[in-house]
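Our preliminary data section would be incomplete without showing what the modeling component actually yields. Below, a chain of 267 amino acids is followed by its predicted structure, encoded as tokens that our downstream tools consume directly.
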Amino acid sequence: MKIGDLTVNRLGFGAMRVCGPSVWGPPKDRKHAHGVLRRAYELGANFFDTADSYGPHVDEELIAEAMHPYPKDLVIATKGGLVRPRASAWDEDGRPEHLRKAIEGSLKRLKVERIDLYQLHAIDPKVPLEDSLGPLVDAQRAGKIRHIGVSNFDVAELERARKVAKIVSVQNQYNLDNRSSDEVVDRCEKLGIAFLPWYPLGAGGVIRNSRVRELSKRLGVTPAQVAIAWLLARSPAMLPIPGTNSMPHLEQNMAAVTVQIKREDLE
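Predicted structure:
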């Protein structure tokens, strides 16, 4: 599928979970984290999603340590606009001066001259979204960002953003149990832009769904594979990015691309 002019496989990797507990600090086993990232790429995930708030900063550093110099087909997406004063906090900071520094920090940590996809992580209620997108547009013009995406946006906010920048992706929470972004998915499909569902397994809630478990038994696959396959079938705009720090879970998740769900089961 396409993200702007970039072609990626339909199942990416959310790199957040290779950080320490609560997405805070470094992992206990750095070599294991590197191995998970490399294995994700080997299994076909040539789209990695990260953010400067993961760690904070740790996740971007791990990706560079594990994968740089990067394979030519690897697309790395990062985000800015959330800050972590402590492990339990995810605070919006959409001030232009913060985002300008955030972009420069991500470029340095990822060891790139241009970020493939840079996403505004969330709207800061204290800053108009147009003002927050300004530094991204400026960085794109300067050749530091290839494509711009947004995260945690509704349809109206997406349309406002599209008046300021060319938006190629939206990343919102979306899974079988939480379909509050249905309208956004449909709008992305109509516009030909990618939709990246975060929490594709709903922190495990989806795989405990009785219908998911019943279908997984019938198909001889895991509940997680059914949940991911459902996302892939939901829309051609969908680019799931399941994340894990477990090698077995990673291999199971990536195998979900082979799971075919019949129309009647989807319904």
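The chain has one domain: 2-203+237-245. The domain at 2-203+237-245 is CATH 3.20.20.100 (TIM Barrel). Preliminary results of this kind motivate Aim 1 of the renewal.
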